[in-house]
Each structure stands twice: as C-alpha cells, then as structure tokens.
Design brief:
Blueprint: H1 2-5, H2 11-42, H3 49-60, H4 73-76, H5 80-87, E1 90-94, E2 104-109, H6 116-123, H7 129-132, E3 137-142, H8 152-158, E4 162-163, H9 166-175, E5 180-185, H10 188-192, E6 200-201, H11 209-217, E7 220-227, H12 243-255, E8 276-280, E9 291-296, H13 303-310, H14 316-319, E10 324-329, H15 339-345, E11 349-350, H16 353-362, E12 367-372, H17 375-379, E13 388-389, H18 396-404, E14 407-414, H19 430-442, E15 464-465
Parallel strand pairs: 1-8, 2-5, 2-7, 3-4, 3-5, 9-12, 9-14, 10-11, 10-12
Antiparallel strand pairs: 6-13, 7-8, 14-15
Helix pairs in contact: 2-5
Pfam families: DAGAT (PF03982)
Enzyme class: transferase
Transmembrane segments: 12-33
Length: 466
C-alpha cells in the first residue's frame, strides 16, 4: 500500500520532510538576496530605523564569522533537521575513530548542487556526527561571500557554518582548542557545475591549500565522500568551451558561486529522494578484519596504487602493521605468459569475483584488497588537471564487501593524473567510439598519451595516496 511505498511514512511525516527541504532550498537560493533587498526597501519607508540598526550591527559584528562564528546548539538541534535526514535519507558511516585530543580537516566530495549530505551530517546534531564521534565538534566551511549577506549570515553561523577562508579556518584550528573537525567541500563551485546523476567528477586542480593548512596547523587530514549527492538534481551539463559554460565561468569569477542549470522533482526545486551515504575514512586498519579499498583515480598506469600496495617500500606494511594488501588488476593479464608470473609475484590479483572472494573467505583475516574502481573508463578521462571519478555501473565492490563481511575504505591518489598528458577525445567522436570498441574487445583502453623523456617515461610529479 501507500505506506509501504513511502517506507512506512505517514502523509504527515512526508509533508514535514517536504516542507523542511523546501525551506532549505529556498534559503539557499533566495534568503541572502531577498534579505538585502528588503533592508534597502525599508530604508525608504517609515521603518528606516530597522535597517539602520541592522547595518550598524553588521559593521560591529563584521569579523565574527572569521573568529569562530556564533554557533547555537539550540538551532543545530531543531527537530526539522531530523526530517531533512529522513527525506533522502542521509546516513553517516565511519570506518574508525577521531581522537578528541586532536584537530582534523575533512576534505569532502562531491559538492553536488547544494551539498545536502555534508550539511545534514556536519551542521546538524541529528545528522549523526556527534553520536558517531563523541567529544568532536564539526564545522562545515562554505563560500565566504555568504557571510556578507544580511540574515543568512546569522542563520549560517547559528548552524556552525564558517567561511572557507584561511583566517577563519586557522582560528578554529589554533584558538578553539582541540576536538575540532573542519569540513571543506574541496571542489567548490567548479565541482557543482559537473554534478549530475551518474556522474562523479572530483575537482582538485589548484585546490591543494587545505593540505598546506593541515600541515601548518598540525591537523590530520580525513577524506570524506557522499555517495548519492550527485543523484539529487538533474543538471544540464554544458560542454567546455561553449558560450553557456563561459558565461557560467564568468558569473562564478564575479559572484563566487556557479549558476547551475538544474531542476528537481516536485515544484521543480525539491531534490529527488535518493539515499546519501557519507563515508568518513578515519583510524587504523584492524588486522582482525578484512577490507576492500576502492581506489581512484586510475590514471594511465596506476603508478601510485602499484607503489603503495604492491611493494614493501611503498609504505603500506609500515603504516598498517599486521595487514597484507593485494592490488587487483585486469584479469586478462593473468592469461599472458611470463607477465602473469611477474604480476603474481608482486601480489597482484585478477579483479574478478572468484579471486577476490578467495582472499576474503579463505585467506584468514588482515587482508586489504585494493580495487581501482574506475578501470579503463576512468583511464580515458585521465589528464593533468583533470580528476574524473567513474562510478557508474561499478557498485559490485560494495556488494562484494557486504557478502563477505569486509569493511570498505576509500583511497585517493592525488597527483596520479599529472604523470602523463593525454589527448582526451570528446564523447561521441569517432576516435572515442574506436577506443570504446577496443576496450570492449580487449578489456583495456588504448589511451593516447605521451610522457617526458623517451616519450614514455612519466613526468616526475608527487603522488600522495590517502
């Protein structure tokens, strides 16, 4: 019946969820500008004293967002945030503990259109962060320009939001004690322009400042990924170089945020009800358990993954004592003479269900199987400055983990795509169709890349695998 179709929710419960999310979308889209226009209008009426007093307050209070804000536990505990969480629903998953005697910077992807998953998990108490990590305080950083807009700045500060500026973040990390987790949505406006159902694009170009910030302030880095965030709003993705995309880029440079051409479900602005699972990668690996590590990006040759997970000097045995790692690669390689022996000796495995289940079921515990999720499709999108994550029709590793009682661990090799320049053929072109045909027949992608010396040696670029 209707109750079962809606997950057992009553009409009243669904209505409360809709109103909560509608309020959030309207706040996101219109509160800042409408508040400013209202104050300007009141200046020319008999109520001129109200905006005069507010603007005076605004000047006196101008630096508060840069000094930790004005967090309100009352606002963060509003019951409407429970309805926000239930609407999609949003689920926070942790893979370890955070130490309340330390500070952390969490790098979160993807941005999506409105970052609903990050907002629910890190700016509301019902989102689950306080329960998952007792003794920790989370603060979500967002566009600094929002904190110069009337009314919405107060609302955001009450929810514990902060401007994503060096001054603001350093204040939290240096002057607010320990037990702080600052959440930065790394890709920002650029990543939001690449948000669409079935698309998982990670933007990292010219966005390494958070790493420097962590090093300078003694904070640990924690990767966060909200699976499902990009499924909420269909968006028209304008091609690079088109007039529309250039206008979006110009708007972003001037205003600081991107004008995404999106639609929702009902009323055209309510997001679709799609589950969001926010995975927080923390802590050590437990040698009494097994793990599946989902690694991105593939790059041309996966140099970072090979070094870290198939060689002893790569650092994995030292970082995780008692654990054994096995990198999975194209199964067809193990049908090639000599090369199969070489690959087996390095601990490589074919990336098929039989092989992986053998490790997870019959090789005891303390195993970490590393799968480069995006495979050949992701390698075709590899180029310096490009960070495309391919997840479409690649959820089998999640089922494999559930069936074999293994924990999932996200892995990202920053810098992998910087090693080899590649000619990126446009979707639908004859060249790309030939690449796709070759991939279907042979199992791997013929990437049109060059290297440095001898045209095949990769460029010397640092690779940091987190």
């Amino acid at each position: 019946d209707k109750m079962e179709e809606n997950g057992g929710k009553s009409k009243w419960k669904l209505f409360l969820e809709d109103i909560t999310v509608l309020h959030l979308v309207l706040t996101f889209l219109f509160m800042g500008l409408s508040g400013l226009l209202l104050l300007v209008y009141l200046m020319f009426t008999s109520l001129w004293l109200i905006p005069a007093l507010y603007f005076t307050w605004l000047i006196l209070d101008w630096d508060t967002p840069q000094r930790g804000g004005r967090r309100s536990e009352f606002v963060r505990n509003w019951c409407i945030w429970k309805h926000l969480k239930d609407y999609f629903p949003v689920k926070l998953v942790k893979t370890g503990e955070l130490n309340p005697s330390k500070n952390y910077i969490m790098g979160c992807h993807p941005h999506g259109i409105m970052s609903m998953g990050a907002l629910s998990c890190f700016s509301t108490e019902p989102g689950g962060f306080p329960q998952a990590f007792p003794g920790m305080r989370s603060s979500l950083a967002m566009l600094a320009g929002v904190f110069r807009m009337p009314f919405i700045r107060e609302y955001n500060m009450c929810a514990g939001l902060l401007p994503v500026s060096k001054q603001s973040l350093e204040y939290i990390l240096r002057k607010s004690g320990v037990g702080n987790a600052v959440v930065i949505i790394i890709g920002g406006a650029e990543e939001s322009l690449a948000s669409a159902p079935g698309v998982n694009t990670v933007v990292m170009k010219q966005r390494k400042g958070f790493v420097r910030l962590a090093l300078e302030n003694g904070a640990d880095l924690v990767p966060v990924y909200s699976f499902g965030e990009n499924e909420l709003f269909p968006q028209v993705l304008l091609s690079k170089g088109s007039i529309g995309r250039k206008l979006q880029a110009l708007f972003k440079r001037v205003m600081g945020f991107a004008p995404c051409l999106f639609t929702g479900g009902r009323c055209l602005i309510l997001p679709y009800r799609r589950p969001i699972t926010t995975l927080v990668k923390t802590g050590e690996l437990n040698p009494s358990k097994n793990y599946i590590m989902g690694c991105h990006p593939h790059g041309i040759m996966s140099m970072g993954a090979f070094s870290c997970f198939s060689t002893e000097p790569g650092g994995f045995p030292q970082a995780f004592p008692g654990m054994r790692c096995s990198l999975a690669m194209l199964a067809g390689v193990f049908r090639m003479p000599f090369f199969r022996e070489y690959s087996l000796a390095a601990g490589l495995l074919p990336v098929n269900k039989q092989s992986l289940e053998y490790i997870l079921r019959q090789s005891g515990v303390g195993n970490a199987v590393v799968i480069i999720i995006g495979g050949a499709e992701e390698s075709l999108a590899s180029a310096p400055g490009v960070n495309t994550v391919v997840m479409k029709q690649r959820k089998g590793f999640v089922r494999l983990a559930l069936e074999n009682g293994a924990d999932l661990v996200p892995v990202y090799s920053f810098g992998e795509n910087e090693l080899f320049p590649q000619v990126l053929l446009s979707e639908g072109s004859i060249g790309r169709k030939l690449q796709a045909l070759f991939k279907r027949v042979m199992g791997f992608a013929p990437c049109l890349f060059t290297g440095g010396r001898c045209l095949i040696l990769p460029y010397r670029r640092p690779i940091t695998t987190v």
